[in-house]
Write a structure and sequence with these properties.
heterodimer; A: Rossmann fold; Rossmann fold; six-stranded mixed beta sheet; about 35% helix; B: two-stranded antiparallel ribbon; 2 strands
Chain lengths: ~550, ~270
């Protein structure tokens, strides 16, 4: 049975001359799990929103959209509300009410159900998503992962038959993302819900999808089963799961493309002569004079438990340190302590030899921090105004010159007169970075700089970080993204229970961890030591001997 | 309607005090009660200094007459004010947002959503505001050296907060639309239910309140302080009015005590 059909659908936003969607033909059968991929701005959200009429953007729509066998216009709002669940990207903004149980009841109240029925349905939904312990909690006290799980529960409480998920895990840490996706898979497999999900990080969903659809500039470029999509040259490299990336980078044609870590390990074992655990010597971490030094730092918010507990950390000059750790491990707090915004309870923090408490103003002028949400930095109504606000105003001419230098380096000169809120996420981040860089800080702290970005944007952020290091900056970046840390850091540190439990080069760091590590490290375990990025793995495989006989059918 | 009869003030004060002790526990209340007593003494003493009505002059202070009526009126006022303060405290700890929303929800389900939305936004505002202030400070771009600069920084940060919240609320409104806020026939879910004992209490409160209104209007319990204190009404009708007031004032405390004894018996 067909749940959804797009026939020759084109859509144009009112002020744009470009089609956001162009001639889309797409059919989705009941019970299918469809992964929708594509770069940021390729029209994924527009497509998903057009399916649910209450959320449809205004604009010029042509072609026909059929949902549950009816044309979209014939579907009543009541049907659309109860039959189509929708989860958006931001876990925070979707929550409407102050307590979890009221949030769960929201959709049911809209449909006019009586209290007894609402009680039964909310209770059942809460239990099946494992959020029954949160039932009486205030929504403000939930973690990001819990909030998004609540949003998913709220979208399914009305028992919809179609679930639309618009980059639902992009704001979550990997552990929460995995939990979220496992619930999505359950809904699809156990309850037979039709699911259309858009994602940038596809490792957890690509292998399990029935179909992979890719949008490129508003057109469908790929529409195939995962394994066929993985070998399609049309498919954007970033949309592949890590295992298939390795396969693609090797230029392999033999056998089916592996989609999961396990399949990739089997593929390597079958096709390459790998000598058992080749030990690769890596250079020990460079030791330079420390630019940042924390000694015995303890920190807690008022009446809270210790967030940082006897923490010692040295970051060498001109070094990039990546700090990893679970949700609420205190990573952002650590950055704030180094930036001098929060005062440690005990211990001392020095930046370039200056104590952040005793020589606060000096220390502050050396350190700049990019917050997780770059919008937090914008106070003016234009990018130029914001950057100028932080530039040295005493010397107007030089400030102007510095502004142009920084902006041309970041490639945002054309955005200077725009309102910061009118920029895309990536552009906002660059504008925020420009605001920090005109002050010429010596130390830059980055709080999850690649959060929610697509693959290309992530790579360009990583390249930018490396370029800034080339200019002599010392950087700490806090991230959930093991790949990102492996690609750009000189050293990686794991923050757990308030202190640093591991601190080493990315190679040693990620090879020593077995859960909180990169997919490439998972794949190469037992084959190669100190191999943590896909590129390293590929180069090691390329230098290995290939097996001639290939009986593998994956 | 309003009466200055001190019996009501006294009953109200005692009932509020007892309820407060029950609801919020004894030990930490001692300080609060001492503070309240001090406040009451202060009003009692200060009223005659500023008010010189009344005919029974006790003594002169700096040539100003201090009257017995003014002192007693001060005592009465302090008790009444203290009772109001205590009742407000009790109200704020008993009347949770859930109960308020339950009360308005049945008749105005959309108002219930609005209240809940507001309650959700308060911590969000706080968190975002701290986020912006921290982000600005951590970027090291702000000058907070003088009071004026600091103030202007806070104003700018607040305006940025409003922009951010407005932008984010587009998502919130989409989320509400997706879940049918625009549909007609909305209900308001709550897990409170109305039992027989609730009906009994309601009937008691309503009939007592009705009798109090009648006796107020008919002047059964009238009393005035100035110029001369009139005698306390002690007719049967007046006593019945005191009793009716006592019922209303002590019902919440009695309910707590019964519930407590009940749970002890069960356990």
């Amino acid at each position: 049975m067909e749940t959804l059909a797009f026939e020759g659908v084109s859509f144009k936003y009112p002020d744009s001359d470009r089609y956001a969607l162009e001639n889309i033909d797409l059919r989705v059968n009941s019970g299918e799990l469809v992964l929708l991929c594509g770069r940021s701005g390729s029209g994924k959200s527009t497509l998903l929103r057009l399916i649910k009429r209450e959320l449809s953007p205004f604009g010029e729509l042509s072609g026909s959209i059929t949902v549950f066998g009816k044309s979209r216009e014939q579907l009543s709002v009541r049907e659309s509300v109860s039959k189509i669940g929708f989860v958006m990207q931001s876990c925070e903004n979707q929550i409407v009410t102050e307590s979890v149980w009221r949030e769960l009841a929201f959709g049911l109240e809209s449909l006019g159900l009586q209290s007894g029925e609402i009680r039964r349905k909310t209770a059942e939904t809460a239990m099946s998503f494992g959020i029954d312990k949160l039932y009486r909690r205030k929504t403000a006290t939930l973690s990001g992962g819990e909030k998004q799980l609540l949003n998913l529960a709220c979208a399914t409480v009305c028992e919809p038959s179609l679930l639309l998920l618009d980059e639902p895990t992009s704001q979550l840490d990997p552990i929460s993302a995995r939990e979220f996706l496992s619930h999505v898979l359950d809904l699809n497999r156990e309850l037979g819900l039709t699911v259309i999900i858009s994602e940038h990080r596809t490792d957890g969903i690509f292998p399990y999808a029935d179909r992979v659809v890719e949008l490129d500039g508003g057109r469908i470029s790929v529409n195939a089963a995962p394994r066929d999509a993985a070998v399609s040259n049309e498919l954007f490299f970033g949309a592949l799961p890590s295992a298939a990336k390795v396969y693609r980078m090797l230029g392999e044609k033999r056998s089916q493309p592996p989609l999961t870590v396990t399949e990739c390990r089997r593929f390597i074992a079958n096709n390459y002569m790998v000598k058992a655990a080749v030990s690769q010597e890596t250079a020990p971490p460079r030791s330079t004079a420390p630019a940042i030094r924390l000694k015995g730092v303890r920190f807690r918010y008022e009446n809270g438990k210790d967030i940082l507990n006897d923490l010692d950390l040295d970051v060498g000059e001109n070094e990039i340190l990546a700090v990893l750790g679970g949700n609420g491990a205190g990573k952002s707090t650590l950055l704030k302590v180094i930036a001098g915004v929060e005062k440690p309870l005990y211990g001392k923090v020095e930046v370039l030899g200056r104590n952040t408490v005793k020589r606060k103003n000096e220390a502050r002028s050396l350190v700049s921090m990019l917050p997780q949400d770059p919008r937090m930095l914008f106070l003016s109504s234009s990018v130029r105004g914001d950057i100028m606000q932080s530039a040295d105003t005493a010397d107007k001419e030089n400030a102007e010159k510095e502004l142009m230098r920084v902006c041309s380096k970041l490639g945002i000169e054309h955005l200077l007169d725009r309102h910061p809120y009118d920029l895309s996420g990536g552009e906002q981040q660059k504008a925020a970075l420009a605001k920090l860089l005109v002050r010429k800080p010596r130390i830059l702290l980055l709080d999850e700089p690649t959060k929610g970005m697509d693959y290309d944007a992530k790579l360009s952020t990583i390249a930018l970080v490396k370029e800034l290091r080339g200019e002599g900056l010392t950087m700490i970046l806090v991230t959930h993204d093991a790949e990102c840390a492996a690609l750009c850091a000189d050293r990686c540190a794991l923050l757990f229970d308030g202190s640093i439990v591991s601190n080493d080069t990315p190679e040693r760091f990620f090879s020593s961890l077995s859960h909180y590590t990169t997919a490439a490290a998972h794949i190469s375990r037992g084959f190669f030591e100190n191999t943590v990025t896909a590129r390293q793995l590929v180069s090691r495989l390329e230098s290995s001997e290939k097996r001639e006989v290939n009986t593998d059918k994956t | 309607m309003l009466t200055l009869n001190p019996v009501f003030a006294a009953l109200s004060l005692i009932a509020a005090l007892i309820l407060r002790l029950i609801v919020q526990g004894g030990r930490p209340q001692i300080k609060a009660i001492l503070r309240a007593a001090l406040f009451m003494a202060l009003i009692t003493v200060l009223n005659p200094v500023f008010s010189h009505h009344g005919v029974t002059v006790l003594f002169f202070l700096n040539d100003l007459p201090i009257t017995r009526e003014a002192i007693l009126y001060g005592a009465y006022m302090s008790a009444a004010i203290m009772a109001v303060v205590l009742w407000c405290g009790v109200l704020s700890s008993c009347m949770t947002s859930d109960k308020v929303i339950h009360l308005v929800g049945r008749a105005f389900p959309h108002l219930a959503v609005l209240i809940s939305l507001t309650l959700r936004f308060i911590p969000l505002f706080k968190e975002r505001f701290k986020g912006i202030i921290d982000a600005q400070r951590a970027a090291g771009v702000n000058d907070e050296t003088t009071m004026i600069k600091k103030l202007s920084f806070y104003i700018k940060a607040f305006s940025a907060l409003v922009t951010m919240i407005l932008e984010d609320s587009i998502d919130t409104s989409d989320s509400m639309k997706a879940r049918g806020i625009t549909l007609s026939g909305r209900t308001s879910y709550s897990d409170f239910s109305f039992h027989f004992d609730d009906a009994v209490v309601l009937a008691l409160v309503l009939s007592s309140a009705a009798y109090l209104m009648i006796s107020g209007a008919a002047g059964f319990v009238d009393l005035s302080f100035y110029p001369v204190i009139t005698p306390l009404p002690v007719s049967v009708k007046a006593l019945a009015a005191y009793a009716a007031f006592g019922v209303i004032a002590f019902i919440p405390a009695a309910k707590e005590v019964i519930a407590w004894r009940h749970s002890r018996l069960r356990a």
